[in-house]
Specification:
The chain has 241 residues and is mainly alpha-helical. The chain is built from 8 helices and 6 strands, in the order ααβαααβαββββαα. The protein has 2 domains: 2-134; 187-240, no CATH class. The chain has helices at 2-29, 35-58, 64-79, 85-89, 91-116, 136-169, 206-213, 234-240; strands spanning 59-60, 133-134, 174-177, 180-183, 186-190, 193-197. Helix 1 (2-29) runs antiparallel to helix 2, helix 2 (35-58) crosses helix 3 (64-79) and helix 3 (64-79) packs antiparallel against helix 5 (91-116).
Length: 241
């Protein structure tokens, strides 16, 4: 058990270092020379996180203070990496930020172990795992907490992240909420003329769009569907006539 946890800590730190170096070489060299190596290490760390997470929940005396932050970070970064940070920061900036955070967590873990150990060791010793004890009550509580609390929270997190991503990509024209998808209509003023922008999803019947434009003024109003342009200036000729 001790060796497994120590290997996890070392790989976690190595993953942060390799990921940071790989992310920093992209703007400098335009390539990712450590991409494959970093992907393999990250996958191994992610796989190791699942049994550690299970042990954290059912074993009494397991070192939660040190291991839990790493497990939570790896699980979040590995499973939910696509939302929502890359939408706002970009892929490269997100990778760089996560690499720095991971490296800080890894270094902080070593510092905590160094100062909390009686022998001033950087990793766990055999004495740190002598008091481990399996508890059925902890196991049942752990399973219940994941089903009733963790899984719903993950669902809420994904829903909120997806809503933020859609709003950002659509420049706040499209909103995703618990009631469904809504669209924001805006009015612009250009050269003394009012321009009504009515975003819609192209899934309704034609009568819906006819009712949508009925409130618009009949006089001096031109409805231009999405994708239609006036490169030949036909609207200007029509106005002159």
């Amino acid at each position: 058990m001790r060796k497994f946890v120590n290997i996890y800590i070392i790989l976690f730190l190595i993953d942060g270092i390799v990921s940071l170096v790989d992310a920093m070489t992209v703007p400098l060299l335009g390539i990712q020379p450590l991409y494959i190596a970093q992907g393999i290490i990250a996958f191994v760390v992610l796989v190791m996180s699942f049994p550690l997470y299970f042990l954290l929940g059912c074993m009494r005396g397991f070192p939660k203070r040190v291991v839990l932050p790493m497990v939570l970070f790896v699980t979040w970064a590995g499973l939910f990496f696509a939302l929502p940070l890359p939408i706002f920061l970009g892929i490269q900036n997100t990778v760089l930020l996560l690499s720095i955070v991971q490296l800080c967590i890894g270094i902080g873990t070593l510092v905590i172990l160094r100062h909390s150990s009686k022998n001033r060791q950087w990793l766990y010793s055999s004495a740190d795992f002598e008091q481990l004890m399996f508890r059925w009550r902890r196991l049942f509580g752990f399973v219940a907490a994941n089903i009733l609390l963790i899984i719903p929270l993950i669902g809420v997190y994904l829903a909120v992240s997806l809503s933020l991503a859609i709003s950002h990509i659509s420049q706040d024209f499209v909103h995703l909420g618990f009631r469904g998808i809504s669209f924001e209509a805006r009015t612009y003023l250009y050269e003394g003329k009012n321009i009504f922008l009515l975003p819609t999803s192209h899934v309704a019947q034609p009568t819906f769009y006819q009712r949508l434009v009925e409130p618009l003024p009949v006089d001096n109003t031109v409805v231009i569907p999405e994708g239609v342009t006036d490169k030949k200036q036909l609207l200007k000729k029509r106005k002159d006539n």
